[in-house]
Amino acid sequence: MPPKQMNTRMIKEALRYKFELGHSLERTATALNISKGVVAKYVGLSKAAGLDWGEIQTMTEAQLQARLLPGKHVDGGNAGYVYPDFAQVHRELSRKGMTLMLLWSEHQANNAKGRTYQYSQYCEHYRRWAKTLKRSMRQTHRAGEKLFVDFAGPTLGLSDGTRAHIFVAALGASSYTFVLATAGQKTAHWIEGMAGALHFIGGAPQLIVPDNPRAVIAQCDRYEPRATDSVLDFARHYGVSILPARPHTPQDKAKAESAVQVVERWIMAKLRHACLTSVADANRAIAPLLKALNERGFQKLPGSRASVFSEIDAPALSGLPLQAYEMATFKTVRVHVDYHVEIERHRYSVPNALVGQSLDARLTRACVELLHRGQRVAVHARSAHAGGFTTLDVHMPPAHLAHRDWTPQRLIDWGLSIGVATGGLIQKLLERFKHPEHGYRAALGLLGLSKRYGKERLESACSLGDWIKTGHTVIINGATGSGKTWLACALGQYACRRGHTVSYLRTPRLAEELRVLHGAGGFGKWLIQLAKTDVLILDDWAVAALDAGTRADLLEIIDDRAATRGTIITSQLPVEHWHGWIGDATIADAMLDRLLQRTHRITLKGESLRRSKQKPSGDQDADQVLETL
Questions:
Q1: Which runs of consecutive H residues, i.e. helices, occur in 498-629?
Q2: What is the β-pairing status of strands 535-541 and 502-506?
């Protein structure tokens, strides 16, 4: 092994002792703690080169090295050796499949007539040279392999008081940089930045290396991280893989950290005084600065980001799909028995064989895709119609297709054969749907009630449907305990559930309440409020006799509601005896004319519910009561 060469600074100091101070060889060697023979060697080389102390004093260490030891490298190579261009070696190692062994053999072949290092010394000199580079450059990045992405910490202020967030991407081998201003750092903004970077560089790398933000990584794990569904969908579209850096390990994405630092210094710092009105305005201001950044030359390597990108990275990138990625979100849905899934209150059809299965819905701005085990089974245009249906014929089972023989007109004609009200209600049921077939089951169920309750009761119930809006009176007759009050309250509850206002009055107590209102001077105001009530329940009608004042006030109450508001009256007294109960013939004629012009009569029969202790449950839905009318 050749002896280690003495440091050039020490050589210059030994020559100063000898030529300027006039010390002997022995005294110089003792002072500098080196051998006398080494001092004699370099003094002899100086004299052979014709150097005195005046010339030596003005020389740099590299110049002195070249004069004393011509052919030897400053780093200590042997005389006559051809020193490799390690900057080019470092650049070539970025190419896929390149090794130091191959580069050394090429160096040997290109310099066959000169002296070259053997492989071990070649590697040692390369490693020594690589230590002079920045820490971030010590990693060896393959061409077109990785794109490092991150958001800068600082933001750009906008004139409206909001902030523009700065997305930064850099390729591993060339450090070619992309910058985009976004409105935030949500999943959509990350995907916008990554898609913009891929289209900026004109290709797709093998890997995209982000940090571990929740907007990108659904499961942050050191060994098996998982990206969000939207990010994975983006990666499938461009044929790339998402490989996040290890948690709390920024050195895994040192290239991104370095790129962010460069962008903060050379782009964001220059825009600190700019008046930016929007995110788009910020991107317009960034564009020329980004171009200048990529074209700036490296400090210790030949070329620039742009030149190295075109030479190294660009040829190694994969092609981009013809269509740019459109942001998509995912949700899990279940197929209902009518072979539709519900998404944002709208229903979309799927093949009927998938009833009961769980599907993945991929939602874009204009499209709904339904996936079963990763395979697309249905696609629809997205609809914002709440409560609507989007149905494809191909998804319907054969029995439903055959059911088309049941035309809407056939069902309407069946309803008209029962009565005008039934036919009208069937028509309204079918008109609620874009495809009338969706209303067939409800229509057939309604028509089937005629077999259970008879056509007359069905027609009566159908005509009762709009009694509130049309200002009809519902008269419930029956013996004591037959359930008149309960039925009236059930109808009131039915009205309340559909957004109507309801008031309840017991007729026997009405006279006393009216006297109190008249005495307090509040009758007029109370009468106005009562006239605005959608449904008025007058319970226990014709139980007690009416005095003249109550009779007149009752006429005012009924007159305000005639043909405009709904009224429910319960009474044990048959309607034909009401005239005599009212007493005054004139008032009785006026009152009954208003009550009986538009009326529905319900007569309850059977023994008293109080004796049989079979009161209807208060939790029973009023819709079930209407069904049995």
A1: 507-520, 523-531, 548-561, 578-582, 585-596, 609-612, 622-627
A2: parallel
H or E element, residue 534: none
d(CA 549, CA 591): 14
Question: Which of 283-287's residues contact partners 24+ apart within 8 Å by CB, and which partners?
Answer: 283/180, 283/181, 286/179, 286/180, 286/181
Q: How many residues does the chain have?
A: 629
The pLDDT assigned to 136 comes to 44
Instruction: Check residue 26 and give its pLDDT.
Output: 86
Residue 358 CB partners (closer than 8 Å, separation 6+): 332, 333, 334, 335
What burial class does residue 60 get, using C-beta atoms within 10 Å of its C-beta: 0-12 exposed, 13-18 middle, 19+ buried?
A: exposed
Question: Which residue numbers in the chain have pLDDT < 70?
Answer: 1-5, 70-80, 96, 134-139, 250-251, 401-405, 463-466, 610-629
The tokens describing 150, both together, are: 């991150």
Q: Which residues of 410-426 are buried (b: 16+ CB within 10 A; e: fewer)?
A: ebbebbeebbebbbbbb
Q: For the chain, first and last CA: distance in Å?
A: 113
Q: How far is CA 406 from CA 410, 418, 420, 440, 447, in A?
A: 6, 18, 20, 8, 14
Read off the pLDDT of residues 103-125 as tens digits, 9 standing for 90 and up. Answer: 999 988 988 888 888 999 899 98
pLDDT at 3: 57
Q: Which helix (H) or strand (E) holds 163?
A: strand 163-171
